[in-house]
Amino acid sequence: MLRTAALSLLLALCGYAAADWLTHGFQVWTDEGARRLEVALQPVDAPHVAVDGPGVAAPDLPALLAQGDGVTIADFIYTRCQSVCLSLGSTFQQLQAALQADAEAGHPGNVRLLSISFDGAHDHPAALRAYAQGLQADPALWRFVRVPDAAQEQALLRRLGVVVVPDGRGDYEHNAALLVFDARGRMVRVFDVAEQQLALDHARHLARSAP
C-alpha cells in the first residue's frame, strides 16, 4: 500500500513538473498563449518580404513598418472572408476612430494600422482598394497590402505564427489577433481581438517612448 501511495505521489509530481514546463510556469495553457508570451519576451523581426497595395511604395514589409518611425497595429485578413475578418474590420474601424479622435484633441500619436492579406493570388491592389473603401479606411492611418510571392507569403505566416488553413471550398480558417510592431519592424506584442484597447494603449505607449 505504501508502494502504491509513493508511486501515485511520484506520478503526480512528474505531471506537475511537465505541466509547469509546458505552460511556462503555468502562465499559459494553449499554443496561442505560448506564442504571445514568447513574443513579449523575445520580439520577432518582420521578414524581408515584398509587399504591394494601394498607395504603398515600400519595397518590403520592414521598410513599410519603418516609414515615419511609427508604431503599427496589424492584422491578417482576406477580402472574401465572411467570418472573423468582419470582426477584425470592425475592430480596426474602432481603432481608426480612436486615433482620429486623438488627432482632433491635439494629441496625435504616431500609431498606424495595417491589414495584410494572406490571399495574395486574389487580393491584388485593386481588390484591396475596394475593400478599404468599403471599410471607410483613412489611407493616412490604415493601409492594406498583400505579399504577391506565394513562397514569401508562407514564410511571413510561419515567421509571425499566423495559422491559415484552406477549408477546401476556396475559403480559409485562420487565427485572429492584433499584432503590434515597433518602429524597428519588430513584432513586440500579440493581443486577442477582444483586447483592442490594450493593443491601442500599448501602441500609444511605444510611440510616446520612442527616441
Corresponding CATH superfamily of the largest domain: Glutaredoxin
Secondary structure tally, helices: 7
User: How many strands?
Assistant: 8
The whole-angstrom Rg is: 20 Å
CATH architecture of the largest domain: 3-Layer(aba) Sandwich
Instruction: Estimate the global geometry from the Cα principal axes.
Output: globular
Q: How would you describe what is shown here?
A:
With 211 residues, the chain is of the alpha/beta class. The protein has seven helices and eight strands; from the N terminus they run ααβαβαβαβαββββα. The longest helix is centred in the N-terminal third of the chain and has 21 residues, at 2-22. The relative contact order is 0.18.
Task: Give a concise summary.
This protein is of the alpha/beta class and 211 residues long. The chain folds into two domains: 2-29; 43-209, Glutaredoxin (3-Layer(aba) Sandwich), CATH 3.40.30. It has helices at residues 2-22, 31-41, 61-66, 84-104, 125-134, 150-160, 196-209, and strands at residues 44-45, 71-77, 111-117, 142-146, 164-166, 172-174, 178-181, 186-191.
What are the defining features of this structure?
6-stranded mixed beta sheet, 211 residues, Glutaredoxin
Ordered list of secondary-structure elements with their pairings:
Layout: H1 2-22, H2 31-41, E1 44-45, H3 61-66, E2 71-77, H4 84-104, E3 111-117, H5 125-134, E4 142-146, H6 150-160, E5 164-166, E6 172-174, E7 178-181, E8 186-191, H7 196-209
